[in-house]
Write a structure and sequence with these properties.
This protein has one domain. It has 4 helices and 13 strands. It has helices at about 5-15, 40-45, 185, 190; strands at about 70-85, 90-95, 100, 105-110, 115-125, 125-135, 135-145, 150-155, 165-170, 175-180, 205-210, 215-220, 230-235. The termini are far apart.
């Protein structure tokens, strides 16, 4: 069976899975939406002044600086993390996404080459399994200290307007929850279907970075929601 939107949510409900408890209306950083971060509706529609709406070069509003070890193009090994709160589970995968950062902090994330992230979690005694993948490009600017580890923060407006997500459930039923859906439309009730595994603002957000040699890791900031760890290698 293949479906989208409200039909998909209804299909899950048939199997008595209490996804409503995932709290899609929680504020950013809530442990109840472990994968969701920030106001995606605002972020996805606010295009940075002068940013190339999903074009081939980096772009974004604001001026920044990036540590020298961050500069260059990075290819994702993948994303991994745990779900907690109303649900318990794990997610992993998502290799292939490209992250490009220049010395002035201009940053682009190209999710076009991304492979799916698989997730599994249990809620109300039932198992939910599936996968998701982002599409499109995200543009912005970052600022970091000059050190090999520290806090990475966006500066100015990040353009999420071309970011899409595709979500497929495999259990308890085979359902297409979203098919290249704009992230602004998916955020909210849609995140409940993945137990919070889908992050509304992936990669280009406040993170802890560690860029040792040819490996870069981006982790949630201390005290932030567990949206998983992205691992990249120098392309």
């Amino acid at each position: 069976m293949r479906s989208t939107g409200k039909v998909a949510i209804a299909a899950v409900a048939v199997f008595s899975i209490g996804l409503a408890g995932c709290g899609s209306d929680k504020s950013p950083g809530s442990s109840a939406t472990a994968g969701a971060s920030g106001d995606a509706t605002a972020g996805a529609t606010a295009v940075a002044s002068g940013a190339p709406g999903g074009g081939g070069s980096t772009g974004g509003g604001g001026q920044g600086t990036a540590a020298s070890c961050l500069v260059g193009t990075w290819k994702a090994d993948g994303l991994s993390g745990k779900l907690s709160g109303p649900v318990n589970g794990t997610f992993s995968g998502g290799g292939g996404a490209l992250l490009t950062i220049d010395s002035g902090g201009k940053t682009q994330v190209d999710f076009g080459p991304m492979t799916p992230v698989t997730f599994t979690f249990s809620v109300s005694g039932s198992d939910v399994k599936g996968s998701f993948a982002y599409g499109g490009k995200v543009n912005g600017s970052i600022k970091t200290p000059s050190t090999a580890t520290g806090t990475l923060e966006p500066t100015g407006t990040v353009d999420f307007s071309s970011l899409t997500v595709t979500v497929n459930l495999t259990a308890p039923a085979a359902v297409t929850v979203a098919d290249k859906m704009p992230i602004s439309e998916f955020t909210g009730s849609g995140t409940a279907d993945t137990g919070g595994a889908v992050d509304a603002q992936p990669v280009l957000k406040k993170s802890q970075y560690d860029c040792g040699g040819t490996t870069l890791k981006l982790s949630p900031p201390a005290g932030g929601a567990d949206t998983g760890i992205w691992t990249f290698r120098k392309a």
